[in-house]
Specification:
308 residues, alpha/beta
């Protein structure tokens, strides 16, 4: 098997630029910290792209690269290398696009406080602007952990994500790679716990504490949020008229070793609260590779035909 070979946009412009023709497939990648090759990110946790493997040589130009990883979907326009390589008239023809986006937006939506900053801190932030409910808004215990979840807030988030993914597909269709597949992964379900990075995090842990959600329900609320995102992405991929070429891999279906509740460091397949360690990235990366390669290979000739 061949590990995905990653280049930066700058590599393509160097005097010793690689020949793209030596690879079976050529991909363009953009994303959050799951794709970043910044030294600080690699020393802190794994890079999912490093764990993609294929039967034949495959390369990707990774625009997440060594700079700041993409924090939000809406920041795509602020990623000039990616936009140029995707949509410019003279851009290469890519066999597909790899994306790792949406997770940070979900976490930030969960972190919106119940009360806005002063002077109106006694008022509640409108439900459609947050993913979690204040204690005074919790539903009945019979609703399970959905009692803590703001469906109006989810609808706002879902509309935001749909709009941004639609925009990204329109950028693809402006360039030479029109109609090529765009591969997105869902996210694994994290255990909310006090395990952050040196300069950030933890992420869900303080939000769940601020909303007074019982610790016994944290894991289930985290799963509810991440599964909602997975279901949304899969529903978009199932709509080829409005989201042509979108291919979504359900990472929530990959069995991972959960982190221990309350742990502060590496635990199970996790480096910290929301980032996988190398074993976690390997499990998801290998499964995602199979999904990507199956799409790129296309239908097997004769498959599905009835035998006489």
């Amino acid at each position: 098997m061949n590990h995905l070979v990653c280049y930066t946009p700058q590599d393509l412009q160097s005097a010793s630029a690689p020949s793209l023709e030596t690879y079976r497939w050529r991909l363009l990648a953009q994303g959050d910290s799951w794709f970043s090759t910044a030294a600080a990110k690699l020393s802190a946790h794994a890079n999912l792209l490093q764990e993609l493997v294929f039967a034949q040589p495959v390369m990707a130009v990774n625009c997440a690269g060594q700079g700041d990883a993409l924090e939000h979907m809406v920041d795509l326009e602020a990623a000039p290398d990616f936009v140029r390589l995707l949509s410019a008239d003279d851009a290469p023809v890519w066999d597909g696009v790899l994306l790792s986006v949406g997770g940070n937006d979900l976490i930030d939506a969960a972190k919106v406080p119940a009360h806005p900053p002063a002077p109106n801190q006694q008022d509640l932030t409108p439900l459609h602007l947050r993913l979690l409910r204040h204690q005074t808004e919790w539903g009945p215990p019979s609703a399970g952990v959905a009692r803590y979840f703001s469906e109006p807030g989810w609808q706002t988030y879902a509309a935001y994500l749909r709009s941004n993914i639609s925009h990204l597909l329109s950028l693809r269709d402006q360039g030479p790679s029109r109609g090529k597949p765009v591969f997105m992964h869902c996210y694994a379900v994290p255990m909310p716990r006090p395990a952050g990075a040196p300069e950030s995090g933890p992420w869900l842990y303080p939000a769940f504490k601020a909303y007074a959600i019982p610790a016994a329900d944290w894991a289930a609320v985290s799963r509810l949020m991440v599964v909602h995102l997975a279901q949304l992405l899969k529903s978009l991929a199932a709509d080829p008229v409005n989201f042509p070429g979108l291919k979504v891999f359900d990472s929530t279906a990959v069995p991972l070793a959960l982190a221990t509740p309350g742990s502060t460091g590496i635990s199970g397949d996790w480096h910290n609260e929301i980032h996988l360690n190398h074993s976690g990235s390997l499990k998801i990366g290998r499964a995602w590779s199979e999904h990507i390669e199956a799409v790129l290979r296309g239908p097997v000739p004769g498959a599905g035909k009835k035998k006489n």
